[in-house]
Amino acid sequence: MSQHVSLTRFLIEEERADHINADLRLLIEVVARACKTISVAVGKGALGGILGDAGTGNIQGEAQKKLDVIANEVLLEANAWGGHLAACASEEMDDPYPIPDAFPRGNFLLLFDPLDGSSNIDVNVSIGTIFSVLKCPGDVQCVDTQAFLQPGSSQVAAGYCVYGPATTLILTVGHGTHQFTLDREQGSFVLTQRDMRIPEETQEFAINMSNKRHWEAPMQAYIDDLLIGKEGPRGKNFNMRWIASMVADVHRILTRGGVFIYPWDKKDPNKPGKLRLMYEANPMSFLVEQAGGASTNGRSRIMDIPPTELHQRVPVFLGSKKEVEAVTDYHRKADQA
Ligand code: P6P
């Protein structure tokens, strides 16, 4: 008898425990299957003829990679026929995508960054798909942007799939954060870690240091204190990692702890940060909190932020609880000064 628990069995058991219903189980299975397809495409590298730019841009003003567009289409097509979704929203699309009239619509909304970290595609560094699931609110047509504008605390599921040396799916349905690794021979995701836990303390931080001169004073002060190390106010030495692929940096933090920071910077004062609230910060915050970590925008809990726009951005401080509290404290004290 195999000791392995497949994703399918895990989801059946979550349904039996009333943590999810049948439609949400189908939705997660469909997204996981789409991630397997994306993993195959990403894994072809230069042999697939799909590296490089697509020659188009997205609402973020970013050049789209061919794989960005392919991953987006894979997720839309996979979710069209199942009857579990009312609409999708994507980093790669200006507006929500209602499920086509040819198919029945369900009561869930799916948001995703189909291929996060895509600037790393051409240099063969881990990238990934991030997704978030909301329920249709009762009071609006469930295909309008307004239906998606719910705080992160309303998510019923979230996850990412990191396409690295292994293809790994990290999932929460609000009862812990769990890791599934793709068994390429069987073609199925297998539970490889139940209830991931982020250590509360850490000596590792992740940030793009080249932006330091553009940060707010408390952000600079916090990093300066980390760099002083043991002799300084933090009383310990720190190490730094920055992969510039959120799924890879967050995966390291879920695996061994750390703090991931993408703060506001004055390079573009009108942008409150680089990362997007709805389909990057909120799903990652849900996963991190379910693993015992914390996630703020430097002042307050990210999952409490009431969204005003589908593609709005937010500063992100997430990871080991005590370290997120420490850096948030630097900002709150500066505000009170
Ligand atoms: P920078 C990738 O483009 C991304 O959206 C995240 O995955 C990553 O954490 C961040 O941007 C990297 O930003 O400014 O260091 O290139």
Automatic annotation (TrEMBL):
Coiled coil: none annotated. Its cofactor is Mg(2+). Pathway: Carbohydrate biosynthesis. It catalyses: beta-D-fructose 1,6-bisphosphate + H2O = beta-D-fructose 6-phosphate + phosphate. Residues 6-193 form the Fructose-1-6-bisphosphatase class I N-terminal domain. It is found in: Cytoplasm. Pfam families: FBPase, FBPase_C. Residues 198-331 form the Fructose-1-6-bisphosphatase class 1 C-terminal domain. The keyword Cytoplasm applies. Its EC number is 3.1.3.11. Substrate binds at D116, G117, S118, S119, N208, K274. InterPro entries: FBPase_C_dom, FBPase_class-1, FBPase_N, FBPtase. Mg(2+) 1 binds at E91, D113, L115. It comes from the Bacteria. It is an enzyme of class 3 (hydrolase). Keywords: Carbohydrate metabolism, Cytoplasm, Hydrolase, Magnesium, Metal-binding. Mg(2+) 2 binds at D113, D116, E280. Binds 2 magnesium ions per subunit. Belongs to the FBPase class 1 family. Homotetramer. This is Fructose-1,6-bisphosphatase class 1.
